[in-house]
């Protein structure tokens, strides 16, 4: 397989996934002001809106599955799914993912308190019951696409840092309708999309760092996405969002991403020279 074809496939994937979010699933709900479903409140909409909302959240992984099946058939799907369950990534990379989230969350909590807000740390334990469904609502619904399909293909033509930023920009735009959709946590909190985008692009670099250092294990991205989503949920629900906090929220992860790039280098975000094979 030449490098041109997989790179083009990665670009097509990003365009299709973004288009589905903006024009088919989430975008229409935002424009029409129709509530669908919210974990953060009591908003409930009609069944058709709920269906658009749920399917829209799965478009990255569903698009990756469809495009893999079309291009590579059953063998390609089996390779993709094997990388999702490749959980033997080494203890140090599990620790690295945990360290990233602990450090990032500590920075966010510190910002809340420095800005005069309150935070209840007991909620990290109290909300553990929601951790299991969160692995589906985010990691598994997205990571087969962003990291499992797009990342390795973009890296056939781009260095790891550039590929991460490209995916991060599209990933942020994919979320854009949630900021205008009735009942979502982003809309309810009147969150800053720009600050959110900085956080998404920063964490996209960290996902690539784990992915490339674990031999292309999609599970590494699923795991980081899982614990990151849980930590963000707790931070959003267990304390105040003081005035100006939006601009401090992405900074801890931005700092971590800068350190990772400086230490591991932008070309591969790993000290190993080999490329992760596509497929």
Tell me what the structure shows.
This protein has 14 helices and no strands. Helix 5 runs parallel beside helix 12 (218-237). The chain has one domain (4-264). The longest helix has 26 residues, at 59-84. Residues 274-279 have low confidence and may be disordered. With 279 residues, it is mainly α. The chain is globular.
Q: Supply the helix-strand structural class.
A: mainly alpha
State the end-to-end distance: 10 Å
Q: Report the strand count.
A: 0
Average predicted confidence as pLDDT:
92
Provide the succession of SSEs: HHHHHHHHHHHHHH
Helical proportion? 55-70%
What is the count of structural domains? 1
Binned strand content = under 5%
Main beta-sheet annotation: none
What is the radius of gyration computed over CA atoms, rounded to a whole number of angstroms?
A: 18 Å
General form: globular
Low-pLDDT parts are 274-279
Number of helices: 14
């Amino acid at each position: 397989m030449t490098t041109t074809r997989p790179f083009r496939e990665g670009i097509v994937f990003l365009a299709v996934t973004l288009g589905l979010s903006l024009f088919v699933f989430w975008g229409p709900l935002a424009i029409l002001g129709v509530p669908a479903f919210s974990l953060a409140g009591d908003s409930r909409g009609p069944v058709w809106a709920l269906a658009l909302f749920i399917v829209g959240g799965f478009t990255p992984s569903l698009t990756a599955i469809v495009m893999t099946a079309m291009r590579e058939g059953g063998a390609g799907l089996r390779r993709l799914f094997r990388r999702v369950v490749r959980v033997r990534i080494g203890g140090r990379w599990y620790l690295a993912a945990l360290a990233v989230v602990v450090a990032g969350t500590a920075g966010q909590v510190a910002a809340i308190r420095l800005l005069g807000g309150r935070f209840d740390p007991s909620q990290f334990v109290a909300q553990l019951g929601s951790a299991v469904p969160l692995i589906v609502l985010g990691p598994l619904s997205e990571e087969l696409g962003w990291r499992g399909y797009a990342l390795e293909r973009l890296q056939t033509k781009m260095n790891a840092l550039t590929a991460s930023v490209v995916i991060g920009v599209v990933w942020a735009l994919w979320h854009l309708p949630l900021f205008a959709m009735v009942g979502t946590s982003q809309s309810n909190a009147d969150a800053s999309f720009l600050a959110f985008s900085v956080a998404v692009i920063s964490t996209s670099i960290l996902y690539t760092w784990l992915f490339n250092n674990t031999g292309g294990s999609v599970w590494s991205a699923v795991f980081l996405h899982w614990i990151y989503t849980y930590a963000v949920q707790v931070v959003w629900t267990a304390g105040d969002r003081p005035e100006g906090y939006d601009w401090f929220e992405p900074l801890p992860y931005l700092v971590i991403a800068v350190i990772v790039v400086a230490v591991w280098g932008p070309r591969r975000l790993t000290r190993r020279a080999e490329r992760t094979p596509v497929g």
